[in-house]
Amino acid sequence: MGDRLNDEGYVLVVGSSGLDLVCRSQDELRYGTSNPGELRISPGGVARNVAENIARLGMNVSLITAVGDDPQGEQLLKQTADAGVDIEHSMVIPDCPTGTYLAILGHDGSLHLGMDAMQVTAAIEPKHLRERKELFKDAALLFVDANLPSGTLKTAFSLAWRAGVPIAADPTSVSLAPALRDHLERLWLITLNEAEAETLCDHPVPHADRESAIEAARHIVSEGVDVAIITMAEFGLSYATANSSGHVPAVKTEIVDPTGAGDALSAAVIFALLNDIPIDEAVMLGASAAARTLRTTGTVIPDLSLEMLYEDLR
User: Pseudo-torsion of CA 298, 303, 307, 311, nearest 10°?
Assistant: First the structure.
């Protein structure tokens, strides 16, 4: 699919949106009791985050997502539109709450527990996508997250594949990653962490073992993916294509909040490759975007720019 890759048109993003509730403990977490901490609420959802990041980098983005018919959903769509994302084809669903993601962070910013309630995403049915097939034909690229129902994922892949549009995907979680297994041969790009990679490789990917991560990325490429990126938290990321592979160290940074760092990485890599930036430089920009997001209080950097990402690499 790489021969169709171009920076014309827009990036079409299909998947989850929700509110992020992130709680960071002030001290060592104590289980079974209340812990003093700080709470923030911000727009979230993997697909929505990727869409906003790409829009802030300067590309046109159209988002197909679903929110509840409630004040939270109304505010979520407004904030997303204000960031420059086209939400015309998104859905407001009666009698269903807007999605929510809850993260419990330790005092050092590390994630101890994450829970999501994204049932509203199930309202994005295959029919909704088929009625908008022209959106797929005119897109420069399709991005999906695995929160989508299996039938909707299949339809999204089919519409993009028939139109010759490259497809990027994020597994979202270990439990959802298997939903992408049957679609690997149609993927141009996949970004996943070590645990998610294990579910698609059927063999261990030990944490911080960059050679194992590179081998896992190569395995995923052998299944038909053009570009596979495996993130390793503070140990950077490993990647592979049919012609190259490598490891990029993490950009050293303070961890304020890890929420959204992977989404920023995916968005930066997509932006870079669509703008003809070589793969090794693209993944470095992705690592820079992740690092910036890690030290940001919020899910998306509000003043994100390509110049900012290059500045951090220097």
Answer: -50
